[in-house]
Amino acid sequence: MTGKDIENISEYFYSGDPQMSPDEKWQSVFQQWVNRIEEKKLLLSLYELKLWLESMEAFFSSRYLESLVFRFSTAELRNYSMYLHTFTQVSARIIQLLKEVDFKKDKFLLNFEEFIVEGILEVYTSKSFPAFSDTYSPESWFSSLRIFLQNLRHLCSELTKGDLVNQRTFSSVKKLYHKELTHNPIIMTLIKKRFIAKMDKVYQPDISRIVAQIEEKELRRQIGLFFLFAFRIMKINNFIESNLNRSRHIHHIIPLILALKRSQENLFAFYDSLLRENIQLNLNKKQNAALQNMLDSFKEEYQKIFEGELPNFFDDKKERSDRRKVLKNIVIISDMAIKEMIETTAQVFDPKISGGAIFEHYISRKEKADAVKAKLSRLHSKINDYFSRREHITPSDILFDLNVFIETDLNHLQYKDWNEFLYFYNHLTGANFSDDFDVTLKSFHSFITTLLKGLVHAQ
What we know:
This protein is mainly α. It has helices spanning 22-39, 43-61, 63-69, 81-101, 112-124, 143-159, 167-182, 185-192, 197-200, 205-213, 217-246, 253-282, 285-313, 320-349, 355-358, 365-388, 395-408, 415-430, 435-458.
C-alpha cells in the first residue's frame, strides 16, 4: 500500500489478542464508528437510519406485500409505481440521515478498507494485485452512497411519471440499490446487526431488576434478549406513530409496518426455537402456561393487524383519510399487545408488578373489560329496543352506536370476536334501510349475546 500516509494501522485496533482476524478488526472499526456517533450525540439519528434501511429491505423483499398490492392483478398488468414512489419518499430521509451521521475518516480509517481487504488477500490467495495500491477510499463514510441515492431517487421520480412501471423495471432499480449497499461495509454491518448495545439497551429499571434477579445464567440471558425483542417492537411502534402524526403522505409508512411485522416474527421465532425449551426446564407449569398463553394472545393480535387491518389499506374503495385511520389502528393494536406481553412476562417473575409501573398511562385489556362489557350491554339493549319500538329507533341510530364502539373499544376484543364484529358491521352498512338489515341485525344480536356471556365467564 505504497504512497499512503500510514503509521502502522494495526495499532489503531484494540485487542488483547495480537492475532486478530480481519473480521475482528472490522468489528473493532465498526464499534469505534458507533462510539464516535455517540460522542456526537447522534445515536437517535443512527437508530432512525438503521430502521429505515431495515424497513426498505422488508419492503423490497415482502411477498406478503405483493399479495396485498396485486391481489386482483395479473403478472403482466402489475404496476410497481407505488413501490418506486415509496422509495423516493424514504430515500430522501435516508440521504438526510446519512448527512447527519457522516464525518471524515482520520488517517487510519481512511485506509481501513484496503488494510482489511489486503489482509484477507494475503491469507487466502497468492495472486498479486498491482493496481490495489492505487485504490483509495472516499474521505467520508457515505459521500458516494449519498450521491448514488440522490441519482437513483431522481431516476425513480421520472419512471413514476409514466403510465406503467413493470416488474422488470422495478427489479432493475432494486438490484441497483442493493448493489450499491453491498459496496459500503458500514451500511451492510449496520443492517445485519440485529442489536447494537448502545441503541437497544432497555433502560426501564423494573425490567432490568427482574432480569438481574433470575439465577439461572442461560435463562437470564434469554429472558433479557426476549425483552430486547419486545422493546424493539415498541420503539418501532412509537416511531410509526410519530411519523403518522407529522407526515402529510402515508405510503412511506408501509415499509415501517413491514419492519414491525418482521420484528414480531423474529420474536416468535426466538421464543419457539430457544426460549420455550429453556422456560420448560427452569419454570413451573403455571409460569410456563402464563408465558405460552401470552404468546398465543400476541399472535392473535398479529393476525388482527396483518390479516384484518393492513389489507384494508390497499382496498381501492378506501379514501386517504380511511387509509390513515387503518395505519393508526395498527399502531393502537400493536401498542396494546406489546405492552400487555411485556407486563405478563414481567409478572411471571414478579407477580406484584403491574403494567402501570412499567409504562405511563397504561390500561390493560383486563382493566378495560368492565367498560367494554358495559358498552356492549347498552348496544345489546338498543337492538332489543329497535325490534320492540321501531318508531323510536332507526337503523341510522344503530349504525351510529356501532361506529362509536369501533372507534373506542373494538380493539380490546380478541381476534376472533374482533373479526366477527367487523363482519356483521360491514354487512349491516351494506344492507342499510333494506330488508336484509333486520335479518343481519338479529344474527348480530345473537353474536353480542354470546360475546357478553363469554366476557362474564372470563371474569
